[in-house]
Write a structure and sequence with these properties.
Helices cover about 50% and strands about 5% of the residues. With about 425 residues, it is mainly alpha-helical. It has a single domain, classed as Glycosyltransferase. The chain has a 3-stranded antiparallel beta sheet. The chain has a 3-stranded antiparallel beta sheet with strand order 6-7-8. Strands 1-2 form a two-stranded antiparallel ribbon. Keywords: Carbohydrate metabolism, Glycosidase, Hydrolase. It catalyses: Hydrolysis of terminal non-reducing beta-D-fructofuranoside residues in beta-D-fructofuranosides. Belongs to the glycosyl hydrolase 100 family. InterPro entries: 6-hairpin_glycosidase_sf, 6hp_glycosidase-like_sf, Glyco_hydro_100.
Length: about 425
C-alpha cells in the first residue's frame, strides 16, 4: 500500500457494507436487498455474482457459504437450454429468465462467479456439482453468437441496462463473455489436466475482436479485425469526437452507439483488453467529463438523454413497471456506487492508490446517505445532478462496491482468473 490506513469514516463505511451483506444473506443465497419492495427481494444472478465476488474478498466464512448457496440455487433452476435465471424467488419458487427478453449477462456473471468461487476456495466438490450447469451455459452462449463469428448478440433489455437504449453487439457483454471464456479455460485445465487449445484460440480471437471494433483510432485507420469494415468507417465518420477517448458501447446493423458506458470502460481495463495508452485516455475522460468532487462516482452512461434529444421518445417507453430513466437518474446519468467499486479495484491494481481512495470515499459517502430519515441507506444510485439518493434502498451490490473497492486497496482483486490463465 502506498498510503496509510483508511480513516475512521472509511472503516465505518466498510463495516456498514459488511453488515448489509450479512442482512442480504439467507439460507438460499444472497438477496439483492432485504428491503421489502417489488421483486428485489430475490436471488438475482448478476447481483448474486457481484455479491459473491465481494464475499470472496473477505475472510467471512458465513458470507462465503452464502455465496456458494447463491450459485447452487441458480444452477438448480437452470432452464432447459442452459439459461441461468435472471432471478429466483425462494419464498414462492417463482423463476424469471428475464422480462420481454432474456438476460444474457445473467449467464455470463454466473460462470464467472462459479469459477472465481472455485479459484478462491479450492472447493472441488462445488466444482463437480456446477460443471454440468456450466457446460450447458457454454453451449447456450455459443448459440447466442448466431453467426459463429465470435460476438454475442444482445437484445434490447438483455443485460443490466435493462431499461436503457442499448442492444446488438454490446461491449459490456463481450467483455463478460471474454472473462467467462477464460473461466471455462481455467476450469477445463483443472478438470482435464491440460489446456483446451481450441478454446484458447477463441479467447484470443475475441480479445482481438473487442480491441478492433470498439475503439476508434484517432488517425482514422481501420483495424484488421473489424467485424464490418463499412460499419466501422461510418461509425468513425459519424463520431470523430469519440476517437481515442473511450470504448464505444455497442454496434449493430443500424450503426454504432456513442455514449460512454462506464461499466464497459472499467471492465476493458480490469480484464486487460485496454493498453496503457487507452487506459490513460479513459482516465482523462472520466476526470474531465464525469466526476463530481463532492460525490466522485461513475454514471452508468454519459451524456444524459434529455427530453429534447431524439432518443428520448424511445427511452421514455422503455420500462417494465414505472419509468426510472429521467435525466440524471437510474441508467440515464445516475451515479452508481456498485460500478464505481470496480473502477476503484482497477485503479488500485494499477497503483493509482490516491485516486482510488478518493473514489472509495465517494462510495462510502453515497452509501451513507439517508432515505426516509434512515442513514446508511445504501441507495441503488445517486442523482447525477442533485447528488441525492435514488432507487431502492439497502442495495446489496452498493455494499459490494464498497467491499470490493476497499479490499482492492488491501491487495485483493475481485477477479483471480485473468488474461494469463
Amino acid at each position: 500500500m502506498q498510503e496509510g490506513a483508511l480513516d475512521a469514516d472509511g472503516n465505518e463505511g466498510y463495516e456498514r457494507a459488511i453488515d448489509l451483506l450479512r442482512a442480504c444473506a439467507t439460507a438460499d443465497g444472497f438477496l439483492a436487498t432485504p428491503t421489502q419492495r417489488s421483486n428485489y427481494r430475490r436471488i438475482w444472478a448478476r447481483d448474486g455474482a457481484i455479491l459473491t465476488l465481494a464475499a470472496l474478498c473477505t475472510d467471512d466464512a458465513d458470507l462465503i457459504a452464502t455465496a456458494r448457496c447463491t450459485l447452487e440455487v441458480l444452477a438448480a433452476h437452470q432452464g432447459p437450454h442452459g439459461e441461468i435465471p435472471s432471478n429466483v424467488d425462494p419464498a414462492t419458487g417463482r423463476i424469471s429468465y428475464g422480462g420481454t427478453t432474456g438476460r444474457v449477462d445473467a449467464d455470463l456473471w454466473f460462470v464467472i462467479a462459479c469459477a472465481e468461487f472455485w479459484r478462491a476456495t479450492g472447493d472441488g466438490a462445488f466444482l463437480d456439482r456446477m460443471l454440468p450447469a456450466i457446460e450447458k451455459v457454454r453451449f447456450l452462449l455459443g448459440a447466442w453468437e448466431f453467426n459463429n463469428r465470435g460476438l454475442l448478440y444482445v437484445p434490447v433489455t438483455g443485460d443490466w441496462a435493462d431499461e436503457y437504449l442499448q442492444s446488438g453487439y454490446v461491449l459490456y457483454d463481450q467483455l463478460l463473455y471474454l472473462q467467462a471464456q477464460r473461466s471455462f479455460a481455467t476450469l477445463h485445465e483443472e478438470v482435464h489436466g491440460s489446456a483446451d487449445h481450441a478454446l484458447g484460440e477463441r479467447i484470443g480471437r475475441l480479445h482481438h475482436l473487442i480491441r478492433g471494433n470498439y475503439w476508434f483510432n484517432g488517425d482514422g485507420t481501420v483495424p484488421g479485425d473489424t467485424y464490418h469494415e463499412v460499419l466501422y468507417r461510418k461509425g468513425l465518420e459519424a463520431a470523430p469526437h469519440c476517437a481515442d477517448r473511450y470504448w464505444m458501447p455497442h454496434f449493430s446493423p443500424s450503426g454504432y452507439g456513442y455514449r460512454f458506458d462506464a461499466f464497459a470502460n472499467v471492465l476493458a481495463s480490469l480484464f486487460g483488453v485496454a493498453n496503457d495508452a487507452q487506459r490513460e485516455r479513459v482516465d482523462a475522460f472520466i476526470a474531465d467529463e464525469l466526476l463530481n468532487e463532492e460525490m466522485p462516482l461513475l454514471p452508468a452512461f454519459h451524456p444524459v438523454i434529455e427530453p429534447v434529444d431524439e432518443d428520448w421518445e424511445d427511452l421514455q417507453v422503455m420500462f417494465s413497471y414505472t419509468f426510472k430513466n429521467r435525466p440524471y437518474e437510474f441508467h440515464n446519468g445516475g451515479l452508481w456506487p456498485m460500478l464505481t467499486g470496480f473502477h476503484v479495484a482497477d485503479l488500485a491494481r494499477r497503483g493509482r492508490t490516491r485516486h482510488a481512495r478518493a473514489l472509495l470515499a465517494g462510495i462510502h459517502r453515497a452509501n451513507s446517505q439517508a432515505i426516509d430519515g434512515q442513514p446508511w441507506s445504501f441507495p441503488e444510485f445517486i442523482h447525477g445532478r442533485k447528488l441525492t439518493p435514488g432507487g431502492t434502498p439497502r442495495q446489496g451490490w452498493s455494499a459490494a462496491g464498497a467491499v470490493i473497492g476497499q479490499q482492492a486497496l488491501q491487495g485483493r482483486t475481485p477477479f483471480r482468473i485473468n488474461g494469463d490463465a
